[in-house]
Amino acid sequence: MNENNFPKEGEYAPYYHKYISKIENIDVPKLLLSQIEEVRRYYEAMSEEKSQLGYAPGKWSAKEVLSHIIDTDRVMTFRALCFARGEKAAYPSFDQDLYVANSGANKVPLVNLLEDFEMSRYALVSMIKSLPEDSYSRIGNASGFDVSVRALIYIIAGHTMHHLEILKERY
């Protein structure tokens, strides 16, 4: 994957522009790996107790945010794999609030969530490196919108950046 793989308008739902726009002129696989250490540094500076708190009533805890990042990585990675392999079936949306509510994240030791994030990122980058170059531009449908493989990969990286910004600002 190289800088020529930047997603074009129409390759993703307008909602995702806020994530994709954070990634211009960046080596995405390298960024995905560097986010492992950035996430780890942020969470390791936090106590287990504090990681179970939201920044305001009704807001996700820091652990739930991490669980949400992991879930989003997995859903987007699965979609990217399917579309890279030529899948034509449309994929439904996923309800992030339902996923978080059912994650049990606050009961999982923080060290386990961090390991889960790290392992899923290594698997993602390994997949990216093994994809044929022409697969990045393949299009599938998710949540009622056309989306390319490369857009999904950029969304993953930008989504994590987005949540790290919120964590650092509000938690």
Residue ranges: pLDDT <50 for 5 or more in a row? none
Widest sheet, order of strands: 1-2
The appropriate CATH architecture is Up-down Bundle
State mean pLDDT (0 to 100 scale): 96
Please tally the helical runs, counting DSSP H or I stretches of 4 or more residues.
6
Shape descriptor: globular
CATH third-level topology = Four Helix Bundle (Hemerythrin (Met), subunit A)
Count of distinct strands: 2
User: Which radius of gyration do the C-alpha atoms yield?
Assistant: 16 Å
The CATH superfamily title: dinb family like domain
Number of domains: 1
The biggest beta sheet reads: 2 strands, antiparallel
* N-to-C CA distance: 34 Å
Question: In percent, how helical is the residue content?
Answer: 40-55%
CATH class label = Mainly Alpha
Could you say which structural class the secondary elements and strand pairing correspond to? mainly alpha
Report the sheet-strand fraction.
Answer: under 5%
User: Which sequence of SSEs, written as H and E, runs from N to C?
Assistant: HHHHHEEH
Overview of the structural elements:
- There is one protein chain.
- This protein is mainly alpha-helical and about 170 residues long.
- It has a single domain (about 30-170), classed as Four Helix Bundle (Hemerythrin (Met), subunit A) (Up-down Bundle), CATH 1.20.120.
- It has helices at about 15-20, 30-45, 60-85, 95-100, 110-130, 150-170, and strands spanning about 140, 145-150.
- It is globular, with a radius of gyration of 16 Å.
- The N and C termini lie far apart (about 35 Å).
